[in-house]
Amino acid sequence: MSIDQDLEKLLTNLPFFIQEHLSNHNNKEKLIEIVMDLGRRPEARFTSGPEYISQKIISWQDLDYTTKRISKFTNENRAGIERTLHRISCIRNRQFLINGLTCRVGRAIFGTISIIRDLLELQQSILILGKPGVGKTTIIREIARVLSDELEKRVIIVDTSNEIAGDSDLPHSGIGRARRMQVARTELQHQIMIEAVENHMPEVIIIDEIGTELEALTARTIAEKGVQLVGTTHGNCLQNLIKNPSLADLIGGIQYVTLSDEEAKRRGTQKSILERKAYPAFQVAIEINEQNSWTIHEDIKVSIDLLLRGNFTINQIRQSLIDDKISIKYQQFQTHLLFKNSNRTRNSTALISNNWASLNQLKNAKIENLKTKNLNIYSYSLSNNLLKEVIQKMGLRFVITKEIKNANLIIGLKKHLRQNFKLQRLAKQKAIPIYMINQNSIYQIVKLLNFITVEL
């Protein structure tokens, strides 16, 4: 992973006493921003914490020195430096005079998205969520470079605040061959998004900070035209989008549905429930928890449905380790607290998921059969060699048996298991739970075994 930060180009525009101190600072590679407020000491904020960088008090002359050496401030009180990614934001008094500056260090980090490189090659729309300052813009800048240079896609960046490609008519090299469309005013972002599709024939459109209902609706319109989207929005997790009416269109929209008495009883829910209205504009969601730890929802549709049912969801956690290796784990998260009025109960042997894995309904199955360290698995319509390899690499104490009578559980392909009524009857008689997956793949087997170990 390499970093291109052009820090000297920012420091040369600051007062000399600040420039001198930071140029020789031992920790300048971890500098996040520099704060200059009138009548206060200048402050540098590092990833490790803030510190004052001079005993001198910031004066009007210091602020004027910096503002005259950078580009003009926009209506959003932001400015930049030619051919860099640095951002300078100003604070004004009631007479609109600048009495404070926040100088944010912009960095192009090459290699930061190696953790999700496989997801980019799937050609699915990706939504990135995270709180401000967590690095969403840096991530989508690198995504733009990889998609345009390495995967040779036609990429258009809708750069509303010039943070992705820098404050200049010449975009920063960090975006690779991707093209950049600048937005004159924030409220026009949705119009530029549509213009990009209609005029420039992109295969991928990249949008930073989707924040209004119009922008969410436009993203949905673009997705329906078959264009791949990569976008960011503020929020720690998918639950935040469910509770945000203006952005709900990104995940398919949410509506109240009234069930019949019979259907409500069958589902074990109240009669009035929340459901997803349509297909989401994005297929994949990435929650940026920390710089090196991301939560992946590989199918937003399934994750949202599980969240709305107040059940639970299994999330994929990817971490970038020190030796450049990537760790992928699966964790089960309870989500029933999302809806306080939900009175539904969950049968631990009756989870049904339409996409990645499902558990056959066995009302009479005894879960006590699973309370053992050495589980005997009967595999039906799955490759035993593949299953053994996955079990061995995961370090599980599962044994594959050829005799159903010795099995604690049965796993296999859904389409074959549903047709074998004899096996279903035998499993019911012996109270053996049946777990089903859609495809004979390492990915789905790993997910299923992780789910089983969590259940235990």
TrEMBL record:
GO MF, any single term: ATP binding
Matches recorded under SUPFAM superfamilies: P-loop containing nucleoside triphosphate hydrolases (SSF52540)
Keyword Manganese in record: no
Record-linked InterPro entries: AAA+_ATPase, P-loop_NTPase, PTPase_dom, Spore_III_AA_AAA+_ATPase
Keywords of the record: ATP-binding, Chloroplast, Nucleotide-binding, Plastid
Residue ranges occupied by any AAA+ ATPase domain in the UniProt entry: 122-261
Gene3D superfamilies named among the record's database cross-references: P-loop containing nucleotide triphosphate hydrolases (3.40.50.300)
Pfam families xrefs: PTPase, Spore_III_AA
Listed name of the protein: AAA+ ATPase domain-containing protein
Organism (species): Attheya longicornis
